Amino acid sequence: MTLILGIDPGSRVTGYGVVAMEKNKSVHVASGCVDMADLPLAERLREIFIGLTAVIREHRPDEVAIEKIFMNRNADSAIKLGQARGAAIVAAAMCELPVHEYSPNEIKQAVVGRGHATKDQVQHMVKVLLSMQGTLRADAADALGVALCHGHTRQSLTAIAASGARGARAGRWL
Fold it and tell me: Which of 1-5, 22-26, 71-75 is the least confident region?
């Protein structure tokens, strides 16, 4: 079993989700948000670092996956998002965890099957894939989507490597 912490960084709300990958099954372990909307920027970054460090210490994930930055229209927002990502990555690095990065389109493709899916579609599929009931905050759902994306990517790469090893042992080139 592999525990994956997914992070949806934000300068006002950072979502997190922990998923256990067991063979071909994904299991929800924990999810939530680090809220810091009304704090000055430096304190928000501190809260992201402290909050995610606490999540890492509590759940002890094996790997971390985080959403990459995308540039929309507001450069100031992108810079703040980059700073939030940095605080999250440092929390993982300080706990000596490997960090994997995925673009929003890669995450949507892995979870929904469409790279330009809506937030509602991602939230719905996360709940379906993890057999969850009730409401789920959008930022936590996005973080779980990041974890699922990494889990599915990791499983695919492991299967490809295993099939390549079997082919090489049999004297075949695939």
Answer: 71-75
Catalytic residue among 38, 47, 67, 96: 67
pTM, two decimals, is 0.88
**Is residue 139 among the annotated active site residues?**
yes
- 141 torsion bin: left (phi>0), alpha (psi -120 to 50), beta (else): alpha
What are the domain boundaries of the chain? 2-119+134-169
**Known active-site residue 62:** no
Average pLDDT value for residue range 101-116 = 92
Q: pLDDT tens digits, residue range 2-22?
A: 999 999 999 899 999 999 998
CA dihedral of residues 136, 142, 146, 151 (deg, nearest 10):
30
Domain made up of 2-119+134-169: CATH architecture: 2-Layer Sandwich (3.30)
Ramachandran angles phi, psi of 22, nearest 5°: -120, 105
Q: Given 58, 62, 139, 142, which residue is catalytic?
A: 139
Tell me if residue 63 is catalytic. no
Candidate list 8, 35, 43, 47, residue with the active-site label: 8
